[in-house]
Amino acid sequence: MTRYLAPWRRSLRPASFRGVPFSVKSNQTQVGRRVALHEYPQRDDAYPEDLGLKADQFNVEAIVIGPDYMPARDALIAALKQPGPGVLVHPYYGQRTVTLISPARISESTEEGGLARFSLDFVEAGENAEPSQREDTQDAVEKSADAANTAIAEDFATEYTLDDAPEFVEDSALELARDAMKKLEAARRNIVPDISILADYTATVSGVVGSLNSLIRAPAAYAQSVLGMIGTLKALAQSPATALLSYRGLFSYGGDYPGVAKTTPSRRRQATNQAALAGLTRRAALIEGARVASRVEFATYDQAVAARDDLASRLDDEAAGVVPTATEPQTVSEEVYQALTTLRVALVRDLTARAINAPRVARATLPATVPALVAAHAIHGDATRAEELISRNGRLIRHPGFVPGGAALEILTD
What we know:
By secondary structure, this protein is α+β, with helices and mostly antiparallel strands. The chain has helices spanning 7-10, 69-81, 137-159, 167-191, 199-210, 212-215, 219-236, 240-248, 265-293, 301-320, 334-355, 372-380, 386-392; strands at 13-17, 20-39, 46-65, 86-90, 94-100, 105-107, 115-124, 360-365, 408-413. The strands form two sheets. Strands 1-2-3-7-5-4 form a six-stranded antiparallel beta barrel. The longest helix is centred in the C-terminal third of the chain and has 29 residues, at 265-293.
């Protein structure tokens, strides 16, 4: 005997939510865009402002049917109560990731025994991109640089001493300290040639130089004086890029000092003090160079990567005790090694993250000689970039009316 089914039951379509099956009798779908309608007083027209796509919305009339429909009904209710988006297998639109945006309305009656009706309002769920979260890589460099300065100052105070040292060891230390002051003054001149406008800085430097005789006998105080002077240089510069260029002159400091034959305890103390004095200045300059590099606005990806690789390599060498032009590596304490390595990691992460969106240097060759405006439009699709094209290729472009064809032009890609 064939069981009779009402026509509407034969038209049911299968569907599921979170893997729980049900049938669909009818469906309404809303698609389109979000529009803010602006209507103004005393004007007959309105301005519809497009705010982007509207999330697709599915209004589904679901049915759970059968003699034992209650367990299936309860399973669907449990699926609808779960937090977050779920997968809806729609009979007309396929698989969609959706969220239930209003409470499900469930109806059951004795007139239609063996079924439960669900009115479900789903909206397509996207990823939560806003507010976005981004690590403050520049702050990480700042904190790592502060920690590295503390480590090298403490290391200097441990390694360097004039206690019970003969006079020639003290004279050697004083000579090296004076040389460090001269190198710092040269770095300052690269930033601000006219010292008359730097009264406060001049007074500080004069105080340190005038106290060298006593400072070299107080390692902790000498270290703080050197760190303070080197740290102040960046405040004198017009830009972080200028400060970085000045610090570069100190990255190899001390590598050309003549070696000391470690033939006696006094000579070994002299050699240790020499390495400590040179290392303090060199490491402090490198640390501050890394700090300002995190503030430089690099014009191109290539510039950022070049600065990153150079500073990372120098920090690696310093952490390993490899001194420029020195004949043998120096001993590095665990604290200094860890601090410099942490700074290197923070700097690499910062410059890598900021370089991603920077323009990249590429090459373009025109088939024929054309004016700069035409060349800029042909290469970039923007004639206003003619000046940029000329400035980057000054050796090739002698006149803006003649950008040579057949020559490899340096350009910036967006």
